[in-house]
Amino acid sequence: MAKLWQKGYELNEVVEAFTVGEDPALDRALVKWDAVGSMAHARMLAAIGVLTAEEAERLRAELAAVVALDAGGKFEIRREHEDVHTAIEDHLVKTLGDVGKKLHTARSRNDQVILDMRLYMRERYAALAGDTLALIETLIDLAEKYKDVPIPGRTHFQRAMPSSVGLWAGAFAESLLDDLLFFEPVVAIVDQCPLGSAAGYGVNLPIDRQMVSDLLGFAKVQNNVLYVNNSRGKVESMFLSACVQAVNDLGKLAADVIVWCVPEFGYFTLPEEFCPGSSLMPQKRNPCPFELVRASASIVQADLAAVLGVVKSLASGYHRDFQLTKGPFMSGVETTLGCLRVSRVCMERLKVNAEACIRAFTPDVFATDRVLDLVKQGVPFRDAYRKVAASLGETAMEDPIANIRAKTHLGATGNLGLDLARGRAAGERRKLSQRDVWEKAIERLVAG
């Protein structure tokens, strides 16, 4: 089997192993996308007369067979292939002969891998958005169910003012909704078809880049062929930046749950099936899923830093450095997905201990409310503040449930605005359903 670049010499074995790196393993996630991209490319080559219609159909059918093999875990990328592109071309040459050798006309592995990654990003965005929405909806339901369960709000981790489980859960729901907004401009950049840029300088054939873009369901063609090449790593870093926002929120959520599950707080309890134990201490039930989510926020940030570090200050054009953006990018995306999914599963079953939440209140939590009571009586705020501060021991204990219900301005404990959050979530669901255009385009290509 000849490599796609083969021209009469062999690489040193050590060099070959080093330069191939992780690609054979990583590219298993790209088999479908490389195949469907090749289907669109073949259709276009037939339209400009490089292939016959019969040759394009034979290629489509065999590439569809590759997709089916991959779905069944039966398509192999061997180290000697180097990457998914070579593995698929090798398969096509073995099954179709010379027709398989024609497919690479007018493209390079450069624009091929960029296309594969864009298609991978589109699909993973749909998964990320779907899982984020599922968690948001879980948090809104939790906020509704426990809107009247008070907990002490904290600043500097010290008791501050009355809060509620509903306010806490609703805060994370709205934060994750904003994370989805952060993804939208990134996805608009992802949704550009790079194929046809070849090695970054175009080709002297009358290729139809718009046709390929339309066949693959992209919103538009990425115009400048050199920018296509220069955008590798840049687009991945934008996508990971959005992932970082989401996983940072999940890390904060995890930190709260971990602390509030300890017996000294006891606000929450995690079901035992979510809590691995200790090999030594028989009483232990540990919040390991949330501990790993908390740590994963740092891991995804490190993946983003790795991608940015690889592409920083590279001169224009292709460099082999770009190969090393694929691993951290995929790792960051898959880690974010895993964190979203495990967080939703755990939050769906989280037990809230209302009595423990109420027991956590002490009179000083109501000090700020006492200041504002004096303000309502006409006392200047600063004088009221100092009066209460001088007599904190005299602050009376209140009913915390009545207290949180009494704060009815928009977004406060007595008026969480959950209908607003539900409306935003429903709007995001509708937007996500519009992404069906991607899936339908791919289905049409595979079916022929």
Describe the structure.
- The protein has 448 residues and is mainly alpha-helical.
- The chain folds into three domains: 13-102, Fumarase/aspartase (N-terminal domain) (Fumarase C, Chain B, domain 1, Orthogonal Bundle); 109-199 and 220-360 and 417-437, Fumarase/aspartase (Central domain) (Fumarase C, Chain A, domain 2), CATH 1.20.200; 363-399, no CATH class.
- The protein has helices at residues 13-20, 23-26, 31-47, 53-71, 84-96, 98-102, 109-145, 165-190, 209-215, 225-230, 234-260, 288-311, 326-349, 354-359, 367-376, 381-390, 400-405, 418-433, 436-447; strands at residues 150-155, 158-164, 192-193, 220-221, 268-269, 351-352.
- Helix 3 packs across helix 7 (109-145), helix 3 crosses helix 9 and helix 8 (165-190) runs parallel beside helix 18 (418-433).
- The longest helix is centred in the first third of the chain and has 37 residues, at 109-145.
In short:
By secondary structure, the chain is mostly helical. Helices cover 62% and strands 5% of the residues. The relative contact order is 0.12.
Spatial strand arrangement across the major sheet: 1-2
> Helical region count?
19
What is the name of the CATH topology of the largest domain?
Fumarase C, Chain A, domain 2
The 3D shape can be described as: elongated
Mean pLDDT: 94
Question: What is the strand content?
Answer: under 5%
| CATH H level, superfamily name of the largest domain | Fumarase/aspartase (Central domain)
Low-confidence stretches: none
Rg for CA atoms: 28 Å
Query: How many β-strand runs?
Result: 6
Q: Which class do the helix and strand fractions yield? A: mainly alpha
- Element-by-element helix/strand order: HHHHHHHEEHEHEHHEHHEHHHHHH
CATH architecture of the largest domain: Up-down Bundle
Distance between the termini: 29 Å
**Helix percentage:** 55-70%
